Amino acid sequence: MMAQEFAIFHFLKSSRRASPVLWWSSVAMLFGMVICFALSFVDARLIAGASVWEKPAKFFLSLIVQALTVAWAISLLPKPARGIKTATWIFAFAAWFELFYMIFRASRGEASHFNQSSHFAIVMYALMGVGAVSLTGTSAFIGWRLWRQRGADILREATSLGLMLGAVLGTIAGGYLSSHTSHWIGGDMNDASGLGFFHWSTTGGDLRVAHFIGLHATQAMPLAALSGSRVVVYAVALLCIGAMAATFVMAAMGIPFLRA
Fold it and tell me: Of the candidates 236, 230, 70, which has an alpha carbon nearest to the alpha carbon of residue 144?
């Protein structure tokens, strides 16, 4: 237990030292997440059966995890690499752009994603797509710079692979998802009957599952490196690819990840 606490402390300390921009963004996002979750208990408005504040709250959480992972990955670089600071600023700007727009829409009781209600909504949704690609693109860039420095270090190798793999898989799933009018394919098309915290559909296909698995390969890979085995690392990479592909096909066929 003490070793785990020390590891978490070391992770946070390394993230803060490596990228103050991403660290303080994460701290601010934590407050934003708490506020949004609190609002979900006092604001009765719903979108597709879920609180209007759930989506921004969950995006806050997801971006905190991603920002801290990226910051920690930067700490593994043996020396400051060219373009890294610029990449962190792009990441932070893109993240806050997405969050502010989602908060704006939530405050009006309106959807931020798949919103085609006006020219403004269409343009902003397209810009959110640009922001999403900026997030995955900067993660992939940092992963590539770390990959060049991997040497014989399995942790650097796994972390860099995770950043690049998560960016590619997340972008593929996200791009396909955004080309549709919703993330549901068949079923109830309502989050009220979805799976627990995630609200993934239990009655039809849901493209969010593949997108989630693809993006969070970023975190799965460095965790796999704790095994000390490259065989395990690359097995987990193949597992992430396979799981993302399987859930993607299931969703496209209208099959739920878990049926109610």
Answer: 70
CA Rg value for the chain:
19
Structure tokens at 77: 């670089």
Contact 26, 72 (CB under 8 A): no
| C-alpha to C-alpha distance for 92 and 97, rounded to whole angstroms | 9
Which single residue is written with the structure tokens 């991997």? 150
Who's near 87: CB < 8 A, 6+ residues apart?
138, 141, 142
E-assigned strand segments in 14-151? 46-47, 50-51
Residue (of 132, 128, 138, 140) closest to 217 by Cα position: 140
Per-position pLDDT tens, the chain of length 260: 434 445 788 888 999 999 999 999 999 999 999 999 999 999 999 999 999 999 999 999 999 999 999 999 999 998 767 799 999 999 999 999 999 999 999 999 999 999 999 999 999 999 999 999 999 999 999 999 999 988 778 999 999 999 999 999 999 999 999 988 889 998 888 888 888 889 999 999 999 999 999 999 999 999 999 999 999 999 999 999 999 999 999 999 999 998 86
Q: Which of 116, 99, 164 is CA-nearest to residue 137?
A: 164
Residue 192 corresponds to which tokens in the numbers above?
């009220």
Answer yes or no: are the C-beta atoms of 240 and 213 closer than 8 Å: yes
**Chain centroid to CA 256:** 21
Residue 192 half-sphere exposure toward CB, CA atoms < 13 A: 6
